Amino acid sequence: MKRISLVAMMAVAGLFSTNAMAADLGGDCCADLEERVAELEATTARKGNRKVSLTIYGQVTTGVMFWDAEGNGIDESNTYVVDPQTSGTRFGFKGKASINSEWSAGYQIELQWQTADANKTTPGNSLTVDSDESLDAPEFRQAHWYIQSSRLGKIRVGQADTANSGIAEISVANELIADAMSSSHAGLGIIRNDLAGPAINNFEFNRQNVVRYDTPTMAGFVFSAAWGEDDLWDVALRYAGEFGGFKVAAGIAYGESTDSSNGIGGPDPAIEVVNGGASVMHMPTGLFVTVSAGQRDRDTFADEEVFWHLNAGIEQKWFALGKTTVFGMVSEYDDAVEASAQSWGLGVVQKIDAAAMDLFISYRSYELDNGAGVESDFDAVVGGGRIKF
Predict the structure, then answer these.
(1) Which domain holds residue 78?
(2) CATH code at 312?
């Protein structure tokens, strides 16, 4: 028995000795590990503390625009590389921290670059960064902090979306990137300046220096209100939900602005804006309809400015790459001095899920009347892509 115990003890001792040698991380192994950790620390995005999270996000969007303009002394066609105002190239930082089980606080900072702004394109000038270096400067889209309660809602303070921002761009499909690139956002300078067309827009206040409040989602509804910029205020009601095989999203907003410095309104009387949108998709077939409309008025206007816009199409995953969206559109815009624009168009968007990318091509045709008997035509074909990160 003593011999057996002695052998067993020697075996156990040998086992521990072997494991200790195998687990020895000294020497070159540790030096290599420390070197790799130091390299990772040197190339990793850092944040100031461990209490607030940090997320870096963004997208790159560019396209090639061919346009053909005729009327009001213009008979020209050309091709430019352009950046869209809607869904343009941008990057941002955002994060939040939990205060307790109900309350949290956070921030968002987002910048956008327009090195070849499609809104400022004209027949004689593509306005790339080479021809106008000021376009290379970043534009702040978001720069605000917020505090949020799961029970009471969210308050933002700073550069942020107003309540009606995006209200006329609601869609349950993926057609808006192609539609926006071929619309007034691609060649607005030609339509507005060279062809004496109306200043086409959807009457949104977009982003301003505001205080904004959003309720929690209740039965699919969210109410929003914003005030700022001495004096601008607006309210909006949005809904999103699914029932009976249909996906639905909608919203309506009202706002006023009396401040000439914010680029929206002017001195009294105030500009009043009512606008909204709705979108419905039959999920089994992918058939969808998206509509938006709005009105802007001031006592000094000869008449109200109005617009309406309709998209309809189908969205299905016909290819392994991702969903394909095919759509047609028609719209009309009338401004306060009887200038008008009617348009129609077609578009296709192909998602590439593995690369978080959208490829698109679209066509838009405009018939313009400047209200003084001058008529003109404008056609645009835009193809490009957007990749998110």
Answers:
(1) 70-388
(2) 2.40.160.10
